[in-house]
Each structure stands twice: as C-alpha cells, then as structure tokens.
Recover the amino acids of this structure.
C-alpha cells in the first residue's frame, strides 16, 4: 500500500518528461564569453575578462555543483602540467629545490587570502584532513564536550565522532531549524548548549545543507570569555566569499582548494591561530608548518603551485570580494525564482548577513533522486542530499543569470 502511494506521489510530482521539456536546451551563447555578458545583475567583475571560456567545462553543461567539486580554470590546469613537466626533468633536484620552495610560498598566498600569517598555515589534502588533525591533536578527555550541528558534512565531524566512540568525549549537535532562521536564533541555540564542560565549538562557515553563512564572528564573541576553541569548517566558504580569520576571530579554520577556490583536486589548508598552536599535539606539526619536512613526507608540489595559481586567477578577476558579490547576487536571483515552485520549500535563510552562493530547497512531495537524474539528462549538474530530500544549487563566477533562467524553466517543466 505504502509503495503504491509513493509511486503515485512520485508520478504526480515528476511530470511527463517527453511533454515537459522537449525542445528546451541551453545554447552555448547562454554562457558568458565575456564579463559583459553577465546580464542585468550587478555581477560585473572586471571588464574584458573571459569567464566561461577560461574553464574546460563540457560545452552546454550547466555546472551548479561547485559545492561538491569546483572546475579549475585552464590556467590552473596548465600550471600543474608545466610544473609536473619541470619536476620530471630532475625529480629530486627540483622537488627539494626551486619547485619545493615555490610550493611552500603558497602558504604565504593562503595567509594573505585569509588575513593570517604564513606561520599559521599548513597545506593539507582537504578540509577533512585538517579537522581530523585537530581532533587527533587536541587530546580531549572523557566527559569533555564538543558542540557542533546536525548539518555538518562528514569531513567536519568524523574526527569528533571518533573521539566520542573511542575516548568518551561527548558530541552535542544543534539542529538548526530549516525555516525562518536568523542570526539571533542561531546565537541563542549555540548559547543554550554551552556548559562548563564545553571544550570545542565546531561549525561550518557556510552550511553544506542550507547555504546559511553562520555568524561566526558573533559566536566567537560569545565564546571569548570562556576557554573554548572555535573550529571552523571553511570547505564551502573559502573561494566563494571573503574569509577573514582575524575578523572572525576563529582559532582553527580548515578549507579545501578543490571546491570554490577552483584549485587542483586534493588540495587544502589549515589555519591555526598562533595563540593556540601549542595545544595541538601532532607528529606532523612538531617539526614546523612547512609544506615538506621529515614529519609530513613527500608532497605533490605541482598541486600546491596550482593552488597558488587558482588564487592568482581569482585576483585577476578583481579579487574575492567581487567574486562574493557575484555569487551572492546570483544566489538571490535564483532563490527568488525557486520560491515560486510549489513542490519546493526554500531552506536558505533570507537575512543578508547569512547569505552565501548556495541555494537549497527541500523537495516536498517528490523524489529528489529522480529529479536529480532528470536534471543531469538535461545537462544540469546540481547536488542532491538524499537523506533529507534537499537539492542544492551552487552559483559561482562562471554561472550566469541566463543559465539560471534555463534551470528554472526546466524545473518548471519537471515539477509542480
Ligand atoms: C562543509 C563541508 N566540510 C567538509 C567537506 C569535505 O571536503 P573535503 O572532501 O575537501 O575534505 C565538505 C564537502 O562537501 C563540506 O561541504
């Protein structure tokens, strides 16, 4: 009986595809060849910059899933390739010579990007590695409490859950409401969980589920009178919005190069504020923060030099603040249209301070998996979070208003 009902609901929800979207296709001209093609929105970054053509994205593909993995511009790809070629000319001479030095300098670029010092940055493979390093290094004891949320990505929470399973640490998870949430509510929910046993608060900067940019600076202010470490998972914010670790007043900030930074795959970084570094007991950190030392083992210098190139690419477009403006403007534009689709419940907050370049909806009475497949068949790549029926749309610098209009048209043809 249940299955029959489900099938009926699903059929009601997904309209007949052959009637619905026949003939709807996005022409190549919908993609920006030039910044001037970014129509009507206040998204202009720098004149005469070729945006979409800087990427190798498949022609006709609407790529709205940078939150999972970003495309790298050709300049980054070429940098990795050229560096690898140089490396092969004399592997030892170059790896522990000029290329090794150049790769280590990327710590300085990341530091400038985040408003940190070079001696506060280590280069990692990804966000998960960074947060795990902290979880392993903090030496928390049974009964110590960690506050986090139910929306964290595995990468931001598996390290804490490991401590819970193996060392008796208590992980408390805040379940942020998915509707009408604002800064005051976030702060009051955080305050409620604090206790004399709280040792760590670990939150995403931008939520991987709802796209909410958490009020980290305000959370830091609440924690400032207590001895609680503030750990921030920046996987979804770095490269999408301006991150200033000093302004946010976080102790730890972990990020990935291969999402919104548009850097090489398997690159990341970890910021550790100077004042807390001696609290992390880690084999890797014992010999310093350099990209390579005896405790890190050999690294892929080409990837990290490529990450430096990704930052240069963003700078060439006018810098991260301008990119943030673009991403948020596109997000707002998309959300205004997603709201008009009855089958969707928008779960991205509306308050300006909480906005980001991610827009998410709950697919109410339908089948998120099937909708995801249909969008893929239409060359539209988005993220589905199946467990909670969420569909997530990431809008970055290579996405346009016209592309979003096309997405909405296709959505209207597929759902009520
Ligand atoms: C908030 C958040 N944290 C961590 C991760 C994991 O990132 P990585 O695989 O680069 O470690 C993701 C990936 O989507 C994420 O959204």
């Amino acid at each position: 009986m249940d299955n029959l009902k489900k099938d009926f609901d699903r059929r009601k929800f997904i309209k007949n595809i052959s009637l619905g979207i026949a003939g709807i296709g996005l022409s190549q001209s919908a993609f920006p060849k030039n910044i001037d093609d970014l129509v009507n929105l206040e998204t202009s970054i720098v004149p005469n910059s070729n945006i979409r053509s800087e990427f190798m994205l498949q022609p006709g593909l609407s790529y709205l899933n940078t939150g999972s993995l970003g495309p790298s511009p050709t300049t980054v790809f070429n940098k990795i390739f050229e560096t690898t070629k140089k490396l092969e000319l004399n592997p030892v001479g170059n790896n522990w010579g000029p290329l090794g030095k150049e790769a280590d300098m990327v710590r300085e670029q990341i530091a400038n990007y985040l408003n940190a010092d070079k001696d506060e940055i280590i280069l990692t493979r990804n966000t998960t590695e960074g947060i795990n390093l902290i979880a392993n290094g903090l030496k928390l004891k049974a009964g110590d409490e960690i506050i986090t949320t139910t929306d964290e990505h595995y990468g931001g929470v598996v390290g804490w859950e490991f401590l819970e399973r193996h060392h008796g640490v208590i992980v408390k998870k805040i379940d942020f409401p998915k509707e009408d949430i604002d800064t005051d509510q976030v702060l009051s929910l955080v305050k409620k969980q604090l206790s004399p046993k709280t040792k760590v608060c670990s939150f995403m900067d931008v939520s991987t589920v709802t796209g909410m940019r958490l009020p980290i600076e305000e959370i830091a202010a609440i924690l400032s009178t207590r001895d609680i470490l503030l750990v921030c998972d920046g996987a979804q914010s770095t490269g999408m919005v301006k991150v200033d670790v000093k302004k946010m007043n976080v102790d730890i900030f972990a990020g990935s190069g291969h999402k919104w930074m548009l850097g090489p795959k398997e690159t990341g970084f970890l910021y550790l504020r100077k004042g807390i570094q001696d609290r992390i007991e880690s084999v890797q950190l014992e010999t310093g923060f350099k990209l390579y030392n005896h405790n890190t083992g050999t690294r892929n210098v080409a990837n990290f030099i490529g990450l430096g190139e990704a930052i240069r690419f963003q700078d060439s477009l006018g810098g991260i603040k301008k990119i943030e403006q673009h991403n948020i403007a596109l997000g707002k534009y998309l959300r205004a249209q997603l709201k008009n689709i009855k089958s969707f419940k928008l779960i991205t907050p509306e308050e300006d301070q909480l906005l980001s370049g991610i827009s998410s909806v709950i697919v109410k009475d339908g089948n998120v998996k099937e909708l995801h497949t249909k969008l893929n068949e239409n060359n539209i790549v988005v993220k589905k979070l199946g467990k909670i029926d969420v569909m997530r749309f990431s809008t970055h610098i290579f996405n346009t208003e016209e592309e979003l209009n096309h997405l909405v048209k296709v959505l209207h043809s597929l759902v009520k």
About this structure: The CA atoms of residues 33 and 50 lie 5 Å apart.
